[in-house]
Design brief:
6-stranded mixed β-sheet; globular; single chain; mainly beta; 6 helices; 7-stranded antiparallel β-sheet; 6% helix; 562 residues
Length: 562
Amino acid sequence: MEAQLVPGAAAKQPAKRAASAALVGLAVFGLVLFAGARLQAGAPAVELDANELKSHAHATDESSSKVSATLTYEDFTAYASVKEYLRDYAGVSKDDWSTYDDLEIYVPREITVDLDVDRVAGSIGTAAVEGHVFWGLTYSGSNDFSAAYLIVMDLRGKLKQLSPVYGKYMLDNGYTVSDDKDVKRRMFQPLGLKMFNSSHVLLALSDDGTSGPRALWDWREDTWTSLCAGESGDSHDIQWAYEDAAIWQVDGTTKVEEIAVSSNENLAHFAEEKVQDPNHCQATEKDTQFYISSRQTNSIIKMNVNGTVEYTLGGEYGDYKIVEYDGTVYKAGDVVWSGQHNAEYFGEDEFCMFDNQEETYAIYDESRMLCVKLEDYKETKRGYVSFSYFLGEYTPHFGDNDRLTTGNQLGIFWADKIKVHDQYSVRAIEVARNTSEIAWEMKVYGAKCSGKRYCSNPGGGWYAYSIERVYEAPIVANVRCDGTTITFDAYNTFKQMNTFPGTYTITAAVGDDDDGTVTGDFDFEAHWRAASVSVDVPFDTSSAEITITNQFGESTTAATGC
């Protein structure tokens, strides 16, 4: 398989990035995200009028192993930002908020959440339950978007932030563009979504379904910073460069581009001819290796920054046979997954994706969350399905499926046909991988339908593209003691494509007035795999405490419990 190196795409050999290198790059155009190493993790996200927050009804005690919650449209209209959007953009006054009838295309009718604490905790423990989910929700009418939101909530269903994504509100909260006349009345669909750090979200927005501006959103302060001089790019995916103040994106056709965030200058690009409709581009190994999800060829392509293709997994150009979950063996060149979205490399030769099972090539009549692992691929030329979870729904496009710290899988999708007995439009689930049991579930409901079995809504409805899990602080898990050796697993606050530096401090009381302390460095593993750290200490391990700190200055302390 041949690939062409476009002039300007010199191979990059970046040194290991210091903790603040990306921030220094941002400061070039006047953005200062941090004024020190420590983030204010406890800063309040938003203040609500208690008299207006009418729902948030929890069906069970939050301290129990199972928690349920329900949000209604009144939880949305309790936010000042949503009130402003309804008034300025939608032309809906407060008099119209008493019923849902006038709000059907502007806010969801209801969101339900069901949490199984034990299943989410998995091998990590209760720390795994304390994270947030970040996701975008859009209502698409017959011609354009009528509503779009960025939502941050905890796993118990409590909203942490809710922000409408439309031009005037963004401009009023920090977003800048050379000509804001066309921006004020635009609604932007949040598609590509990655965490820049625990407080800032990197976004590729869409105003036409495929392309739009790039921005950073401070979710705690609900403020915006425009990137790339406010210019547009393909909105399917976005990733911050390892060393440069730049982003990586595909161009919607065949090119992968590195773009300066201060100027929109193209720093490097390379192309692969056998790519069609790329909807995910992942830079790994310090931006030297890339994985591209080619939707219309039903394949994942591994390339290096010189444009050389190492292999193609799946689809008509596939190099390897695939062993399905049921043992069926498909030869190289057969289509197993089709029209996939957010196909992503998660380390240890494993890829996870949302397998839409697009109808043109489908071998099943429903979409699924899917992981595929290569098995000695250079020798056996084989990959096998390591996880397959059928959803009982068909999603023609969009969808996500991420591996979490526990090994559970987190996905989001929308239903092509709404079931009358359970009328959700969008569903997000976390599946316990070892049992295929649902650990966490969220459903978004819109206007009620009254068909016999299904309601088809081809002209519009609520959609979601991707979802991310984030923690306020790093996680210490699986602490083991063996004599004077302490071993533990460490996870950073969110999924990252490269290793990043961390530190540990282990302290124990060795006398009435004196503590013994051991410090050291380690690297958080890429792709949210466990960083296993083993430390020899000159004191009793049973009374020790472990503190780990990440590159952002965020820390966690845990007792050994040995």
